[in-house]
Amino acid sequence: MADYTKMWSELGLDLKSHDALLSILGSAYGDIFLSQKDRPEGMKYFDFVMSEVHGLRIQELMEAKARGRIVVGSYCVFVPEELILAVDGVSVGLCAGAEFNFEGAEEVLPRNTCALIKSAFGFKFGKVCPYLEACDVVVGENTCDGKKKAYEILGPLVTDLYVIDLHQTKSDMGRALLKEEYRRFAAKLESVSGKKITPDSLKKGIEVVNAKRMAVKRLAAIRAADPAPISGLDALLVNQVFFYDDPVRFTHSVNQLCDELEERVKQGIGVFAQGTTRVIVSGCPMAVPNWKLPMLIESSNAVIVGEESCVGERGTRWLTEFRGETEEDLLDALTERYFSIDCAVFTPNPSRVDYVKEMTKKLNAQGVIHYSLQFCQPHMVESGPVEKELEKSGIPTLRLETDYSQEDAGQLKTRIEAFVERLENK
Questions:
Q1: Where does the chain cross the membrane (predicted)?
Q2: What is the pTM of this model?
């Protein structure tokens, strides 16, 4: 990595804490990812991205800002990248996947706040997230009560916080509200960027994001093969990089990886032996560097073949379908696409469990591990009905609740190993 000290300093990072964070993450990345055997060659690109995730990528963002582009950061898949691209902006995900500076976060948040929210505040108070500091606009979304109230505290701490409201029922009223929220967001982007969204610019944004999602959908479909041509860890990494990388470059790199994986499938080459127990992980999103659970699963004689998560198929499986050519037509299509997302905040939410069943069948999985972050009420409450419905349908399900620490790793591994043994004996 080049020396980015001057850039980090100008962004206001705490250099000592940031260096310590990068050292810990670099070591963990090597132990978890680079130690895997028979990895696809195409993963070298994603290894490079991660090695420069706080370096070269941040430099690219600063260069984009110097050319007059705005940088828009977000924490959720309900924030439409298509609109950001329509004003020639850059969309990036923000830091919220590690137990960093929780003691600082707990000075303003209750201890029993979910780890993802505390992580976002920990990175902010610790001054170690260059993405957050590079943003012209930080976009929040009222998906859950925890985030809704936390954004009230975060607002004064960032340059420009913009919050999108989200109706939590799948109704005509909910769809209409979301459309108006996206119309309001578009006006905000136009105001900050000084650029007008046109039908052509929005259509181009939709095309770029559709291509990115199609590449990841292609990867998801390849994972149905046995032996698995890619580990769940590496597939998760691709889904995580989805939120950080340049979209066109990312799409090209994923398609190159898929070319290689399809050739592996033809030749019967896998990263795990044929017949290895296959599971799907369902539930909360796993932001970088939240790799604990996949690592425990794939060191327990099982392979993850799909993620029913916002960092996974819930965030990528729908495309925006063009309907007409006017800006209003395109906004309708965009709203319809995002309104399809079956996040656990919606009530009722039957389509989510239906899709877990569908994933289990199409990816030839033998069981589902439902993952909830501690104090994430939507996923924790929904996990019981999901487990009951899946078990009733003959799909063995394990519910796990954890956080970003390593304290419960031994206990989790014991439960995972017992579940894998159950699947092997099924």
A1: none
A2: 0.97
